Amino acid sequence: MNRREFLKSALTVAVPGSVTRIVAQEGSNGDHFSEEGDRQIARRRYKDTEMTLPLLGFGLMRLPQKNGKVDYPTAEAMVAKAMKAGCNYFDTAYMYHNGESEKFVGQALSKYPRDSYFLVSKMPIVMMNSEADNARIFNEQLARMRAGHFDFYFLHWLNAAHWEKAQRIKTLEFMKKMQSEGKIRRLGFSFHGEPEILKKIAEAYPWDLVQIQLNYLDWELCRSGEQYGVLTELGIPVSIMEPLKGGTLVSLTPEAKKVFEQANPDVSIASWGLRYAASLPNVQVVLSGMSAPDQLEDNLKTFSPFKPLTDAERQTVAEALMAYRKSGAVPCTGCKYCSPCPAGVDIPRNLALHNQVKGGVPLFHAKLVYDAMGEEERASNCVHCGVCRKKCPQQINIPQFMAEITEEFR
């Protein structure tokens, strides 16, 4: 099947029908949480091995917080609940929560047998300048997480420029060396960019897993469908980030929500987005950055058991997407890669306020929040330097939206 045929069969709104075989985990990564009566989430076999990964992965980018810091008791309780349900794939990165995410997961998972969970972290190419940074950062990560090895280890946030830098400072060579020493089990990368660059990177090495942003809004908007097609044709399993676009696909417009609620009032809006991504057969794991216990509970319900979208449900997604697009909301995920702004503008917060208004929040209420912000944090303080636009994985024209928000909240 060529790429055009593949994409045509994949979606009008983009979810093909068949699902990869789901099996109970065996071998060295055995499932230690199969007591009768416990809810167990769906798993998928990894390639042609006996190993399986949970279809739902715990993303550690948006952990619960208290007073601006990770709320350890709440987050540890969530990890315990996830582990009990077989959601034992934990994805973090060097920069998440300013390094606190890796420290947290090191503490939270230290009480579990090392072969009972999968640990994933990433090398922050964007923060590196020399070959010496490879060992310095990697060793710091190992110390933070106290796990001895990474089950998957990624080059973080690759695009054309970051891939060039990774090659220049020989990061992949370093990762392969760590793999030979048993400190990394499998290699991969996370990606924000165009399909053409993805294909170039994906063909450069026999990667074990690749993480891309994919959801029903980005299938065409960010060419996620084409990215999925590239990896599938190359036989590389896919890890999905931002299946709900940082919460954007939960805080939909009233019109879009109504479409989902009329189709099935008994399930959450979030479940539609998660099932959309997980229904793709080459998807190995769908990450959810869960920041509250109720989000975890709802996600576990969605994946135990997991039911792929039907043709009728795919049509529902298409109708909801059509309703949402009429709002003109900004496709910001809240990743904060645009921060800090040289002028001090709180870019993610300004965009979030703008999207709330587009989603139906009265302008008066949103303006109360905007006016309470520091003057330097408001969109009106944007100097249009363009630094944020270069750093945005979504390729949003941020200065343009800052100008629009300035007028909106004037």
Would you spell out the secondary-structure blueprint of this structure?
Layout lengths: L2 H8 L32 E3 L6 E3 L1 E4 L5 E2 L2 E2 L1 H13 L4 E3 L8 H10 L8 E6 L8 H14 L4 E9 L1 H9 L2 H10 L3 E8 L3 H8 L6 E5 L4 H4 L2 H10 L4 E4 L12 H10 L5 H10 L4 E6 L4 H10 L8 H15 L21 H12 L4 H10 L14 H5 L6 H11 L2
Parallel strand pairs: 3-6, 3-12, 6-7, 7-8, 8-9, 9-10, 10-11, 11-12
Antiparallel strand pairs: 1-2, 4-5
Notes on the protein architecture:
With 410 residues, the protein is α/β, with parallel strands linked by helices. The protein has two domains: 3-324, TIM Barrel (Alpha-Beta Barrel); 347-408, no CATH class. It is 41% helix and 13% strand. The strands form three sheets. It has an eight-stranded parallel beta barrel, surrounded by five helices. A hairpin with a 2-residue loop joins strand 4 (65-66) and strand 5 (69-70). Helix 7 runs parallel beside helix 9. The protein is globular. 45% of the residues are buried. The model is unreliable at 1-37 (pLDDT under 50).
